[in-house]
Amino acid sequence: MAITAVQNPTQIHRLPQSKYIDAVRWLPPLSPLSKLAVLAVFDADTDIPSLEIHSLSSPSSSPSPTLTQHSRWTPPSRISSLASSSSQPLVAASTLAGSLHVLSVGYDPMVDDNGDGLVSTMEPVLSMDEAGFHVGPICGVDVMESVLVSVGEDGRVNLVNFGDKGFRRVFDGNGLVGFNAVKWASSSEFVTGGYGMGLQWWDLRRPGGPVSQFKANWSQGKNGGMVHSIDIHPSRKHTCLAGGSSGAIFAWDLRWQQQPIVLSGVGIGDAATPSLSESEVWEVQYDCYTKPSNISSSRVLPAMFCSEDGILGVVEQGEEPTELLAEPCAINSFDIDLQNPSDVICSLEWESIAIVIRP
Amino acid sequence: MSGDTNEGALVAYSAEADKAVVYPLRHGVKPPISRLAISWSRGNTLRVSVLRKPSTSGDSGDEVGGKVVEVKLGSGDGDGEISDAQWRRIAYGSVSPFALLQSRRNSISTLSKMSFNSSPYHVEWWEYVLEYSREINSLLGNRQSPPCPLIEDPKAVLKKMEEPTCLKAAWELMELFYADKLSQAWLPEQLVDWLADYDSLLSGTQMTIHLKLVDFQKDLVSLQVVEDHSKYWEVMSSALAVGWLDIVVKLLRLHGSYQLDQLGKREVIAFEILQNLKLDRLMSLETENGLVEAVAVLISKMPRMRPELEAGKLGECFKAKPDFIKAWEKWRTQITKLECSAFWVQCAHHQTREGLRNMLQIMLGNTNSLCTATCHWIELYISHFLYVRPFTVGLESMYNLAEKCIQLKPVACSHRLMGLMIGILSENIEVVLAECSRGFGPWMVTHAMELLTAGSDQADILLHEERNNLGGISMEELHRLVYAQVLSSHALTWQIAPIYLTSCMKQGMGLLEILLYKQPVYNNQLLLKNMEICRLYELESVSSNIMKIAGMYHWKHGKKGSGIFWLQQARDEVRLNRIAQQMFDSVGKSISDESFRQWEGLIQLLGSESKAVGGLEFLHKYRDFKKCLLQIHDGKTTEAAHQAVESLISLMKNPSTPPRFWLPLLYDSLKLLNWQERPLLNASQTSLLLNKLQELSMAKLRPDFVEADLPPQALSFVRLALATNLGRANLEEQ
Amino acid sequence: MEKAIATLDKDTTCSSWNYSGQRLATGSLHGTLSVFDSPDPASSSSFSPTSKTRVHDDAILKVVWVPPEYGDAVACVCKDGSLSLWEEVVEDAQPLQWKLCKIFKTKSTQVLDVQFGVCSTSLKMVAACSDGHVKVYELLDPLKLKNWQLQAEFQNVIDSVSTFAKASCLSASISWNSLKGESQEASFVLGFNSNTLQLNSSKVWEFDQAHNRWVPVAELALPGDKGDQVYSVAWAPNIGRPYEVLAVSTNKGIAIWHVGSNPDLDGRLSVEKVALLSGHGDEVWQMEWDMSGMTLATTGSDGMNLLMEIGFMQSHLKAPTSFMGSFSFLQNPKINPCKPTIVFKSYTVRKLAGMLRRENIVRSWLLPVDTWPWPPNIDSENIASQLLSSLSLFPYLGFLYFMSRSKSTPKLTLFGFYFLLAFVGAAAKVHYGTSLSNVDWLHGGAESLLSLTNLFIVLGLRQALRRVKDAKQGTPNAVRGIKKEKSSI
């Protein structure tokens, strides 16, 4: 694997954890020096799930950076989805048991500076596990300002506000539909995705159901699949990016309703679209580091994805996809550091974390 | 090949082989125990339910009725020197090298079979194997010593090393003998290094030189005049015997005679002594110094048959044998000269004299002094290579030597490394395999097999030949199957088992199919990961079966949407048609707006995949049709009725509408057919419906006809209505 | 080595794990069915009861899971001989709960054992009754476990003419043959413990699609001991053997049988008793093969009920020995677990060395060459046939996957491999008119071997095995296995 690092100037560090990592997210820095990441881990030996905050530091002595655990918190069940607010130091975690938890990250005043910056702590500020919130696992959660939206296999869409207790049911699919992913577009709009590669656009000002639905009827003999991840660029709220089964990455532009812009994937769109991966795309995010080749509002911005067959890559409309990382095992989740977007953290299937630092 | 007698000499033979091994199982259930129930879980794990005898008296309510105990069988290594997490890491890491090597073998065998042997880019197979071996070796932990302090403590004889593992030692041993063809020439020296690295491991079972050194290191700090202590000399000769020259010289420098600074002079004296010049003018002390220095010089000048030495190690390297022999002879003559020189009488200090002479004896290869100097037989063995038979090359008569050493230094209980060593020396592949498997577990066997086969053709034949008593599979395949089963015992490692299973020609895929079938389907992500494996190895039948299970699970557990999705993926027509029936009924029955909204999403979902739906996507149209009918029921609006007719016609025209729904549809729309004001259907439409009706009555005769639950005279009603409508329509059109 | 993963309630009488080992169902003396689950999917450390349902007033004797293709459901055999099917389901309004699907109850007879078999089209249920009758039911609607149809009813005898009116059976044991593919016919093995000798001996029943009836195709008993009471039967999963392996436990011990795959003229399968293990002293309660059909685990008592043990046995062993190892519940200081393993080793090493010196097989050593400079002058057929003859496509696919992952292989090599693969695919079609993925003989005749203990235990026993062979006349089975394989190719 060392060869990978040699071939391209991008430096890649693999940090074995000896625990399974379900999800990983960067945290907004609490101090200019610190670089924090939150890990949803599952200890296979003891079967205990936990949420851990690690600080990433690169000491001069060792060539590769090291993760040092600052604080951990034990959820009632294994964590299914993780979201960190970009504005304030908040972590939202949903569990397979159908509970939702919000933790605020801060410094521990008791523990003083021990060499590598202050020690950060987690404070549970909200935990929603009352009966009838969700049935079964929550599949997706996203946070915008002080409002959380959560979706699950049971087809429920719930809103939780930090301020008031209790939750607000936006929609109940009664299990007739199921959602896998959700993303806020604005403070009142969000997009959900689920089975059949479908996307739904919701507007809180117009309750009762999705405002508009995207049903892709793919050209080739593509027999369905599901959307695993959605991303929406703050500057372009009208297009939402989605990644799903069999390497499918596509953008849905509200202005051109029924026609998706296929960035990658086998058996969908025109056969010409090159695709790095043929299996599940677990996560997609707009990659603010890669400069788009032309900045017309019609073009989709470059997007990064990770896949089951071990690829971390960047795709752009009409461009050749670039491969950042090719692992022998699946890459289950990744996150781009908003403060310095060259840094990417990924969780690998084989109980390890990979840090990719682009030149 | 060594004979049985030798075997007998090595391993204690006992006839009571087929006696059961009995492990006590601690379950902590109070007797009386009435029954046990067993069930195999994933891989090698066995679950035992221990059921307590039901208590007849109902008073004692608190006690437990039994326990379920999980037992992991035959996985991992002998002792717990490596943690589970560490084992998993090794398992993950060894996948890629293994896979790469296998694919290379496949392509090579393919090409060579095509009489394509003379390639311009000719690479020896063992070079690939060596590359593989190195990669695996690096997995097992690298033994770099921490950065040494700037001011080195003269009394720190032993370097601080991280604790080595038996696994790594064993692997390096295998690599040494089988994979690394280049260094076969200086095998003995390699063994010396190996022992230097791993002698500490043997300390567990019995006394070793390393242990001696460690002890001596402890009390070295307290000692004032080291040369007065016999232990000092003892340790030095021991270290010398196994060729740890740097340590010996370092110790010699602690000799008291170095305290007074006459370093400049002493070298001269040493030189003179070595030249055996006549210098009786010397005082005894100076002689002593000289002798010590002389020995030190001799030690550090020892010729060694090896390409190079790492920094800090002493000796002079020789690549070519002739030069080495020449240098060796010269060195020996110097020793003998010094040995029988007259200076010894002038050396007053008794311990020094004896100690030094003893060291000379060792260097001269005196068997007795070697034997006394060493503790473990392997140490004695190594010392023989160094001093008794320095010109040994390859494995010639190595084995007999080993036996002699063992006779001289019998072992109480054999260490697993030594067992492996003996196996290798006896050039008996089965013993090596057996020792690997017994001492280091399935992982070791599976991966070390590659080294063995690279080692010799004989081994290759042995391991690849298909044996009837192993059920027609080769030893190699057998061990891979076993390892795969160990891998599949853990929820995290089972996903790499397929790599090893697919390298098994005969039974691998069979086991893989069962393994996949037994995976739980409750979690979508895990399920998709399994699907990926199926896709990779083209196991369509298995994957559709798994998706069927998932579909049924979701359907039954109130997640109808995902249920239908997975059944569609599985292309399970039978179940989908049943579901279609159910939904048709429910959509038909509940035509309130609320329930429509409920079905909305599901029907949307179904709409997207017209191919895989299995007669469900017509529900769209049916829903519209029902909506129109509903409006009619509320207030009879003619345009609604027209819409209804439109959708009815489109439904009936649509090929995807299953025939078994035709009659119910028509029956629903009786109201439309005999509409009061004017016929809603024109002649052509009506005749279309009549044709359908005709088809239907024909279909009744076929065996696969499904009877819709409608009043028996429904058909005749519809026929009548259609007939009248046709009549009216004709009238109107004229 | 062992860890407790669940604590059972008071008065638990039986327990059973589902197909994936993720759910445990137990029945109690008072007719309560409890289901245990783990908190997280794919975690199997601790199981706790998630539901308790009152199934019956009387005690539950046996719980059997329905195959997962038909949902999460269990069949409960109760003390009064009634059989009830319960499934976990969410129905429109109510929350998740266990509901009764169907009750099978007859005044005259009691159900002793029930097992489910997934056949190509439908789900079949075999129930063995106390009057020596076997009832085979078929599920009509794959979504509902309510509608069952009695497909056949017969007695466990070879010649179907004779029927035994007043048979009374204490216990019965059924084991299905897990199907591999549509082509294979459904079949199961059944044995009774009754006073009517003819019923007892375990027989293999196969469904005859043509005549739509069940026919006995083999009887697993030597002429001498046809009347022995059968405690338990177990059909080993087959991962590529040319014949089936079955275990039958009678009062004489545990017998391992090999049953041939293709029938003779009068439709009977060839059977061979390959081992008799004097395992447990008294009665054997349960026998379970592991997923690879390599290892058999059994439970039983030795009569005095002091020593209960779980034995292990390897399917291929023809040795007179009893067990590879066993877990004892008798904390006995005399038992020394570590010693025998050493003994095994030394024993093996000696015998093996002797044995292998006699074998001399010539095999061409493949000259190693580098692959990536692809020669232009190779025709695809050739490569393909070579590849096929070396049967190395399956690993190939796997490796391609990994090669394509690891950057360390030059792109050219990779191309080379894919190139080769493409050709093989093509040629395979040419040669066999089918895709390689379902060429059956690829995993052809092989007899499987032990997994739990290390190799040499077996190897050690090969000596004993030879002894048996010499004593026993008739060709050793393995040889026949090889013949079969050849013919199939």
From TrEMBL, chain A:
<feature type="compositionally biased region" description="Low complexity">
    <location>
        <begin position="55"/>
        <end position="68"/>
    </location>
</feature>
<protein>
    <recommendedName>
        <fullName>Nuclear pore complex protein NUP43</fullName>
    </recommendedName>
</protein>
<keyword id="KW-0539">Nucleus</keyword>
<dbReference type="InterPro" id="IPR015943">
    <property type="entry name" value="WD40/YVTN_repeat-like_dom_sf"/>
</dbReference>
<keyword id="KW-0853">WD repeat</keyword>
<feature type="region of interest" description="Disordered">
    <location>
        <begin position="54"/>
        <end position="80"/>
    </location>
</feature>
<keyword id="KW-0677">Repeat</keyword>
<dbReference type="InterPro" id="IPR036322">
    <property type="entry name" value="WD40_repeat_dom_sf"/>
</dbReference>
<dbReference type="InterPro" id="IPR001680">
    <property type="entry name" value="WD40_rpt"/>
</dbReference>
UniProtKB/TrEMBL annotation, chain B:
<keyword id="KW-0472">Membrane</keyword>
<comment type="subunit">
    <text>Component of the nuclear pore complex (NPC).</text>
</comment>
<comment type="similarity">
    <text>Belongs to the nucleoporin Nup85 family.</text>
</comment>
<comment type="function">
    <text>Functions as a component of the nuclear pore complex (NPC).</text>
</comment>
<dbReference type="Pfam" id="PF07575">
    <property type="entry name" value="Nucleopor_Nup85"/>
</dbReference>
<protein>
    <recommendedName>
        <fullName>Nuclear pore complex protein Nup85</fullName>
    </recommendedName>
</protein>
<keyword id="KW-0653">Protein transport</keyword>
<keyword id="KW-0906">Nuclear pore complex</keyword>
<keyword id="KW-0539">Nucleus</keyword>
<dbReference type="InterPro" id="IPR011502">
    <property type="entry name" value="Nucleoporin_Nup85"/>
</dbReference>
<keyword id="KW-0509">mRNA transport</keyword>
<keyword id="KW-0813">Transport</keyword>
<keyword id="KW-0811">Translocation</keyword>
From TrEMBL, chain C:
<dbReference type="InterPro" id="IPR015943">
    <property type="entry name" value="WD40/YVTN_repeat-like_dom_sf"/>
</dbReference>
<protein>
    <submittedName>
        <fullName>Uncharacterized protein</fullName>
    </submittedName>
</protein>
<keyword id="KW-0853">WD repeat</keyword>
<dbReference type="InterPro" id="IPR001680">
    <property type="entry name" value="WD40_rpt"/>
</dbReference>
<keyword id="KW-0472">Membrane</keyword>
<keyword id="KW-0653">Protein transport</keyword>
<feature type="transmembrane region" description="Helical">
    <location>
        <begin position="414"/>
        <end position="432"/>
    </location>
</feature>
<dbReference type="InterPro" id="IPR036322">
    <property type="entry name" value="WD40_repeat_dom_sf"/>
</dbReference>
<comment type="similarity">
    <text>Belongs to the WD repeat SEC13 family.</text>
</comment>
<feature type="transmembrane region" description="Helical">
    <location>
        <begin position="444"/>
        <end position="461"/>
    </location>
</feature>
<keyword id="KW-0539">Nucleus</keyword>
<feature type="transmembrane region" description="Helical">
    <location>
        <begin position="383"/>
        <end position="402"/>
    </location>
</feature>
<keyword id="KW-0812">Transmembrane</keyword>
<dbReference type="Pfam" id="PF12159">
    <property type="entry name" value="DUF3593"/>
</dbReference>
<keyword id="KW-1133">Transmembrane helix</keyword>
